[in-house]
Amino acid sequence: MTLTTHLTQKSHFLDIFRKKSVSFWYACFLVFLTPLSIPLAIWTVWEGLATPTVVFLTIALYCYSGLGITVGYHRLATHRAFETKPWLKAFLLIGGAFAMQGGPASWASLHIQHHRFSDKPGDPHTPHQRGFWFAHCGWIFHEHRPNFRRYGKWLLKDKVIRSISKYYLGYSVIGLIIPFVLCGWVGLLWAGFLRVFLCIHMTWCVNSVCHLWGKRDYPNTPDKSTNNPLVALFTFGEGWHNNHHRYMQMPYLGHRWYEIDMGKWLIVLCSKLGLMWDLKIPKELR
Questions:
Q1: Which of 19, 96, 160, 252 could form a disulfide with 73 if both were Cys (CB 3.0 to 4.6 A apart)?
Q2: Distance, CA of 204 to CA of 76 (rounded, Å)
Q3: 277 membership: H or E segment, kind and range
Q4: Domain count across the chain
C-alpha cells in the first residue's frame, strides 16, 4: 500500500466521523456510555463511597427530572393539558432538561408526530415497524427533525418553551454540575450519569414496552398502546399509556384509583394551591 493510498483511506475514514452530527454523538453518549455508570456505582457501594447523601440526591434529582418530563414536557408542553404560572412552567421544563432527552419543543413536536402516526409508518419510535430495540433507543440515532408547522405550531410561540429549548444543553449540563458540586465525583456518577441512564431508559420503555406488553383498558384505540404498571411506577404515571392514547389531552394518566400516577398527584396538589388551572378532564371521567 502506497503512502498516498494510506492517507486517502485515512482521510475517508475521518470524513465518516466528521459527517456525524452532534446529535449522533449525543446518542452514543446516552446509549453506550451512561450504562458504564452501573458497574462503577456498584464498585462505589463495595468501597463504601456511596453515602446516604449521594443516594438521597440521586433519588431527588431522578424525581425532579422524571416529573419534569411527564408533567412539564409531556402533559404541559405537548398536550397543553393544563395552564400554570410561567415560573412553574420554567421550573418543570428545566427539570425535564435535566433528563437529557432533548429540548422541550423538539421533544413535544416528535411526540405529537408519534400520536399522529402511532404504530404506523411515520411514527418515529414504534416497535411494530422496526422492532423493540429500534423503538427503545435505536431511533435516536436517526435525525428526526421536528416539523413545528405540522406538529405543534404553538411550541415556538411560547416564550418559556422557546427559551428553555434554546438553552437546553446548558440546563442539561447544570443537571450534572449540581451533583458534582454537592457530592464530588461520586455524586456526579450517581446523581448525574446513573440518574440520567435510569430516567432515559424508563422513558424509552414507554415507547417500546408500552406498545408491546400490558393491558389495553381501552381496546378501541387505533394503535397497540398498553397500560404497564411497572413502567408507570418508575415514570411517575407514563406507563398508563393506553389510557393516555384514549384521552390524549387529559392531565391524569392514571384513570382508576389503583393506578399510581405521581404526576397526577403533583397536578392535583398544585391545582388546589392555585398554581395550575384549566385542567382538560373529559366529562365522563370527572
A1: 96
A2: 19
A3: strand 276-277
A4: 1
Taking the C-alpha atoms of residue 64 and residue 48, their distance in angstroms, rounded to an integer, is 26
pLDDT at 24: 86
Determine the Cα–Cα distance for residues 107 and 120; give it in Å rounded to an integer: 19
| 220 found inside a domain | no
**CA–CA dist 240, 217 (Å, integer):** 10
Q: What is the DSSP letter of 230?
A: H
Residues of the domain holding 76: 34-212+272-285
At position 137, the amino acid (one-letter code) is: C
> H or E element: which one contains 93?
helix 86-98
Report which DSSP code applies to 191.
Answer: I
Residue 180 included in any domain? yes
Dig out the grid coordinates for 212 from the structure.
408491546
Q: Tell me which DSSP letter residue 83 carries.
A: E
Q: Which contiguous run of DSSP H or E holds residue 228?
A: none
Q: How far apart are CA 198 and CA 70, in angstroms?
A: 15
Specify if 50 maps to a domain: yes
**d(Cα 77, Cα 84) in Å, to the nearest integer?**
11
pLDDT, tens digit, 9 for 90 and up, residues 186-217:
999 999 999 999 999 999 999 999 999 999 99
Q: Quick check: is 196 in a domain? A: yes
Phi, psi of 227 (to 5 degrees): -100, 120
